[in-house]
Amino acid sequence: MEDQAVCCYRHPERETGISCTRCDRPICPECMVNASVGFHCPECSGGTHTTGGGGATGGSARRMPGGGQLRALRGGSLAADPRLITKILLAINVLVWITVLSNEQMINDWALVGQWPPADSGLRPDQGVAEGEWYRLVSAMFLHEEPFHIAFNMLSLWWLGAPLEAALGRVRFLALYLLSGLGGSALSYLLADASQASLGASGAIFGLLGATAVLMRRLNYDMRPVVVLLALNLVFTFAWSDIAWQAHIGGLIIGTAVAYGIVHAPRERRDLVQVGTCVAVFLVIVGTVLLRTAQLTG
């Protein structure tokens, strides 16, 4: 028999898979209150709990049926620290940036470049993704040079990543982030000048922005704030000539597609659809890279 949808006890129109760690009542992201472990509902966070019979408070918390393993939205497990992956990604980006400050050669070695110019330019002619350095598609996602660049991206990662990770779970969130970043790198590789270097986590960040829009739409939230935020970011993307707009658009498209597959997967085939979506997106990225490589290498 198909599972019945679980909705927030305070907002019955909002489907959710997140529960209060004290009473197990289902709560939507708007009702989640940070706790030392997981999240509490508004009543439990205030030290009281409304029992099932009426308006009495102060009684022992009543466990709801099925309160064994907590589940995040669309199948992700709700862990003790629902922001762990976001914190790890932040730490990696900051650590790489600090390392770059003392070793600027990392920019040439790790930045996304399709193919360096000929040997007479003074650079090695065998550098670039087209020459087999596929790792640049990933390494560029964690590479920043200017302080304002990493500051803006890391603030965006925290604002967007923390609630997404709490809702989707660690594995799904990590897949969303990495695929979004790869999607941004792939579109840059395909459309940008082959010798133009690019770097930064912006592709992955735009993917998180697209995923936030998908999630808010799925939960019937007011879409106006995220639409305005997305519009402003797109304006900034095309207003400055030194911004790799291809990475932003690629990350946005991939992040939106992955998030849609995750949050709209049917319950009876949830894991299969979610994994299938990620695999299909990854194959599209690989195909894009292979196509561009064939163009550049003749």
From TrEMBL:
Keywords: Hydrolase, Membrane, Protease, Transmembrane, Transmembrane helix
GO biological process: one example: proteolysis
Residue intervals passing through the bilayer: 174-192, 198-216, 223-241, 247-265, 272-291
GO molecular-function terms, A-Z: serine-type endopeptidase activity
Main localization category: membrane
UniProt keyword Transmembrane, yes or no: yes
Membrane disposition: Multi-pass membrane protein
Protein location: Membrane
Family, per entry: Belongs to the peptidase S54 family.
CC annotations in GO: membrane
Official protein name in the record: Membrane associated rhomboid family serine protease
Domain Peptidase S54 rhomboid stretches: 132-262
InterPro entries found in the cross-reference section: Peptidase_S54_rhomboid_dom, Rhomboid-like_sf, Rhomboid_protease_S54
